[in-house]
Automatic annotation (TrEMBL):
Residues 339-442 form the UDP-glucose/GDP-mannose dehydrogenase C-terminal domain. Signal peptide: none annotated. Its EC number is 1.1.1.22. Transmembrane segments: none annotated. The keyword ATP-binding does not apply. The keyword NAD applies. Pathway: Nucleotide-sugar biosynthesis; UDP-alpha-D-glucuronate biosynthesis; UDP-alpha-D-glucuronate from UDP-alpha-D-glucose: step 1/1. SMART domains: UDPG_MGDP_dh_C. It comes from Heliobacterium chlorum. It catalyses: UDP-alpha-D-glucose + 2 NAD(+) + H2O = UDP-alpha-D-glucuronate + 2 NADH + 3 H(+). Keywords: NAD, Oxidoreductase. Belongs to the UDP-glucose/GDP-mannose dehydrogenase family. It comes from the Bacteria. This is UDP-glucose 6-dehydrogenase.
Length: 457
């Protein structure tokens, strides 16, 4: 089948490359010619495991094409996926649909009577956006004067985690499609058929089927429910993390062990073991944005969603926890040298969007601490994003810890757990470590002589 992808960001590129690997011809559009040139060479502008080899192979096969010409991309498309950005408006808190609307109108202008594509919104959008997309396409059609065209609108949210996006695409827990048009739903089902088929044989370029993976349920719903499923899924995951963080904070005060508590809770099949790791709070491009989007939509509908609002507040407060722990030992942080291990919002990415490190660093600076940081991949990105922050960038972990008064492990990069902690101990002035992700061995750290603080243990 012929597929067009509008917007080759993270979601668009993963979706386009994966659909090409499934045998479709995929044409990806982006307004950024430099990015298009890079992708035409099979190079991916961000790090995502497995993605670049797939892009390279499919570009060579000519099943994956890139262009800044929208007409080239959509002229013969059976499916047009809109995967452009939907940033949050900093002032109103509303989701900015400008790029989605522009894409929809431009598509509408180029539709022709010989094709009746399904136009699918994959960007995470406020509930009810499918109606706006429909209207904007109609507006484009009207402007083109071509009133004999046919199209259908659908919603198909993505559930791709950074760092696991290829695995999440090929082995999803479910595929959700929403439309008022039953034919559009049937056609989308056909597009996703290889993933729904239990005999699907994964190509060698992707990781093998995870253990225990079985039939993928296809959820066919109305568009509002589809849009709500996306928001609610991320809100629930964020809530689960904030919940365990709260239990960790209580455990800290009462003397429990959060590792055992999480395990004991997660073994209840109604709860499940995932997203029960306590730490410095969730971050990333999705959870905060989607929660705020859902709160905004709920408020606009006249409903005050108290649980969702509390999750946002709790996550923000969680980022102050390591500072309170340092203060309980060092008292004033004025003039104290504090090291930050890890800047990205989670390991294996240089993504800094809503990363807890940012708030923690700013708070330390406000308290007049001297801040030194190290991250194996995100430092250049951090420097570029926050050029005016008065912080020192270390060459490596051991350079970071020299003469420190306190160390906070913010991102659980694997290499941090394998440091020579005895050497770290010798190099630090005050031997206090806040393990913000509970990845270090508390007993081992205390045996070396550290004052060790975990989050809930
Ligand atoms: C998320 C969703 O998982 C994905 O389905 C969605 O479509 C995009 O947003 P992502 O932002 O890549 O994916 O990160 P994820 O792996 O879900 O982690 C989000 C945050 O939660 C990270 O900051 C992580 O450190 C934190 N987290 C996760 C915890 O603090 N504890 C946990 O137990 C799990």
């Amino acid at each position: 089948m012929n597929v067009a992808i509008i917007g080759t960001g993270y979601v668009g590129l993963v979706t386009g490359a994966s659909l090409a690997l499934l045998g479709n011809t995929v044409k990806c559009h982006d307004i950024d010619q430099e990015k298009v040139n890079l992708l035409l060479k099979g190079r991916v502008p961000f790090f995502e495991p497995y993605l670049e080899p797939i892009v390279q192979e499919q570009v060579t096969n000519k099943r994956l094409l890139f262009s800044s010409n929208l007409s080239t991309c959509i002229s013969d498309a059976d499916f047009i996926f809109i995967t452009v950005g939907t940033p949050t408006d900093q002032v109103s808190g509303a989701v900015n649909l400008e790029y989605v609307c522009k894409a929809a109108t431009s598509i509408g202008k180029l539709l022709t009577p010989d094709k009746s594509p399904v136009i699918i919104n994959k960007s995470t959008v406020p509930v009810g956006s499918h109606k706006i997309v429909q209207k904007m396409i109609e507006e484009g059609v009207y402007q083109s004067g071509n009133d004999s065209v046919h199209f259908a609108v659908a919603s198909n949210p993505e559930f791709l985690r950074e760092g696991s996006a290829i695995i999440d695409f090929f082995y999803p827990d479910r595929i959700v499609i929403g439309s008022e048009n039953t034919e559009a739903l049937a056609r989308l089902e056909l597009l996703y058929r290889p993933l729904l088929d239990q005999s699907f044989n994964p190509p060698p370029t992707i990781p093998p089927r995870p253990e225990g993976f079985s039939q993928v349920p296809l959820i066919k719903v109305d568009p509002i429910s589809s849009e709500l499923i996306k928001y609610a899924s991320n809100a629930f995951l964020a809530m689960k993390i904030s919940f365990i963080n709260e239990i960790a904070n209580i455990s800290d005060r009462l003397g429990g062990n959060i590792h055992d508590i999480s395990r004991g809770i997660g073994l209840d099949r109604r709860i499940g073991p995932h997203f029960l790791k306590s730490g410095l709070g969730w971050g990333g491009s999705c959870f905060g944005k989607d929660l705020k989007g859902l709160v905004f939509d709920a408020n606009a509908s006249g409903y005050n969603p108290r649980v969702l609002t509390a999750v946002l507040e709790s996550n923000s407060l969680q980022r102050t926890v390591p500072i309170l722990k340092l203060q309980s030992y060092l008292k004033s942080l004025r003039g104290k040298s504090i090291g930050i291990l890890g800047l990205s919002f989670k390991p294996d990415t240089d993504d800094l969007r809503d990363a807890p490190s940012i708030e923690i660093i700013k708070k330390l600076i406000d308290l007049h601490a001297i801040v030194k940081v190290y991250d194996p991949v995100a430092m250049n990105h951090f420097r570029a994003n926050f050029p005016s922050l008065p912080i020192k960038y270390a060459n490596d972990e051991y350079d970071l810890v020299n003469s420190l008064d306190g160390l906070i492990l913010v991102t659980e990069w694997d290499q941090f757990t394998h440091l020579d902690w005895k050497t770290v101990y010798d190099k630090m002035k005050h031997k206090v470590v806040v393990d913000g992700r509970n990845v270090l061995d508390k007993k081992g750290m205390e045996a070396i002589g550290f004052v060790y603080y975990g989050i809930g243990s």
